[in-house]
Specification:
The protein has 12 helices and 18 strands. The longest helix has 23 residues, at 137-159. It is α+β, with helices and mostly antiparallel strands. The chain has helices at 15-18, 123-128, 130-133, 137-159, 198-208, 246-266, 268-273, 289-300, 312-326, 377-386, 395-402, 415-423; strands at residues 27-39, 43-50, 53-60, 76-85, 93-104, 163-164, 170-171, 183-185, 190-193, 210-218, 231-240, 286-288, 330-334, 347-348, 351-355, 357-362, 365-372, 408-414. Helix 4 packs across helix 6 (246-266) and helix 8 crosses helix 9 (312-326). Strand 2 (43-50) and strand 3 form a beta hairpin. It has an 8-stranded mixed beta sheet, sandwiched between helices. A 5-stranded mixed β-barrel has the order 1-2-3-5-4. A 3-stranded antiparallel beta sheet has the order 7-9-8, with no helix packed on it. The two termini are 44 Å apart.
């Protein structure tokens, strides 16, 4: 009888281990995928792609049992040889290969030049061949940055006493109403895909006080813009016992500071690969919705066309204004009009035309929507009645308030959008592994 007692020790080394000074000059074993080949005749440079980055291997006819003619891009291999210092190589090391064993062979050649530093091809081609394009080092780095954002979100909120939850993505009713709902048949009953975990988050505040979730949300919007998707990942949290909706903005500010520091410390390679300079989040200004519109109208001589919403151009100008005036990359725009916020948004007691809510703009693009929620069941029902909303499908949600709920609020962050802005792309599909939009259901 055999038993497993944990992870098996590996005989192959990863990049961090290879960078240890004590490894230099010793014989080591590595594995990886053949990323690119440069045949110089008697000497060939074979770059292996590993989970932590790339490793330069040197094949020399006189000292290696391997012929470069047997090596092909896309092969996975196991190689052994002497590890040496070479400042010109990635991470300052290279492997002088003595033996190489082929683990698997590709059936066809790469449809894109993934071994090149930059994929000089169209977004459409990158998405059509997504399983190949993501193997490019720079393409891959974007999603390592995305991992860092999610990791920072989780780690920071765990440290702030939040409990991670996982809510259904199929429900009886949308959280925000409207027409942007994907409808489906659920065993002969009408159902919808979740626009947001909002209703469940609020219910769970009555259980854990502070909760968060990272998961997909769905919007059936017939748009084809550079900033929208029909399925995206939302970073959500909800917190109880707040003093005001500013507590929510303060919590997000803390997350941003934590996440940016994490990227700086743990994702330095990816920042270098993408040549990124991280934004500042030490002090984030706040401005009322109506005042923000006035400021950009005055400075940039732009007429206010819609008093109840921010147009994309206005968001961009608000970002420009606060960068020019305060050197701020982020800005909270507060007190959005009630008619543009969902039924659960708390109206401002000083002026019920506006809500105790906010958007966070990052370099002129909205990446977060949040605010204080109504926690009184009578007030909640009154607002629903004023909007001619029925209670069907919301009985369990409303029931949670009948049992008592603390003052609370929360937010949702669009992960792909935040990644797009951090890495300097202008289309959210560039920072979505497998985008879903009006025209794309594959791959």
């Amino acid at each position: 009888m055999e038993f497993l007692s944990g992870v098996k020790p590996q005989t192959t080394l990863e990049l961090k281990e290879l960078q240890e000074e004590s490894r230099l000059g010793s014989r080591v074993r590595v594995n990886g995928a053949v990323h690119s080949i440069r045949d110089m005749g008697e000497v060939a440079f074979v770059v292996l792609r590993k989970r932590g980055g790339i490793l330069q291997c040197v094949l020399e006819e006189e000292s290696s049992s391997v012929s470069v003619k047997t090596v092909r891009e896309g092969q996975t291999v196991e190689a052994e040889g002497i590890l040496e210092r070479d400042e010109r190589a990635p991470y300052g090391i290279e492997l002088r290969v003595q033996e190489m064993r082929i683990l698997s062979e590709p059936c066809k050649g790469m449809p894109l030049p993934v071994g090149k530093w930059k994929l000089n091809t169209s977004l459409e081609a990158k998405l059509n061949y997504r399983n190949a394009s993501l193997r490019n080092i720079r393409e891959r780095a974007k999603f390592r940055i995305q991992e860092g954002i999610t990791r920072g979100f989780r780690d920071y909120l765990y440290g702030q006493g939040f409990t991670e939850i996982h809510t259904p993505k199929i429900g009886a009713k949308g959280a925000e109403g409207g027409s942007n709902i994907f409808k489906l048949d659920y065993f002969h009953r009408p159902a919808v895909l979740a626009q947001s975990p909002q209703l469940y988050k609020q219910m769970m505040v009555g259980v854990f006080d502070r909760v968060f979730e990272t998961g997909p949300v769905f919007r059936a919007e017939k748009h084809n813009t550079k900033r929208h998707l029909n399925e995206y990942t939302s970073l959500d949290f909800e917190m109880g016992y707040i003093q005001s909706f500013e507590d929510i903005m303060a919590m997000e500010t803390g997350f941003l500071q934590y996440m940016l520091q994490l990227l700086k410390e743990e994702y330095a390679d990816e920042l270098r690969i993408l040549n990124l300079t991280l934004p500042k989040a030490d002090r984030i200004p706040m401005v009322r919705f109506d005042r923000a519109k006035e400021l950009v109208a005055e400075k940039y001589k732009r007429a206010i066309r819609n008093p109840f919403d921010l147009e994309p151009e206005e968001e961009h100008l608000i970002g420009t204004y606060f960068k020019e005036e305060y050197d701020a990359d982020f800005v909270f725009v507060t007190h959005y009009p009630s008619k543009k916020r969902p039924f659960y948004a708390m109206d401002d007691p000083q002026d019920p035309r506006f809500t105790l809510s906010f958007d966070l703009l990052f370099r002129g693009l909205e990446i977060t929507t949040g605010g204080q929620r109504i926690h009184d069941p009578k007030m909640l029902r009154e607002k629903m009645e004023a909007r001619d909303m029925g209670e069907e499908g919301l009985e369990q949600y409303l029931g949670a308030f009948e049992y008592g709920m603390p003052p609370h609020g929360g937010l949702g962050i669009g992960l792909e959008r935040l990644t797009m802005m951090l890495v300097g792309e202008d289309n959210v599909r560039e920072t979505t592994l497998f985008p879903r939009d009006l025209s794309r259901l594959e791959p």
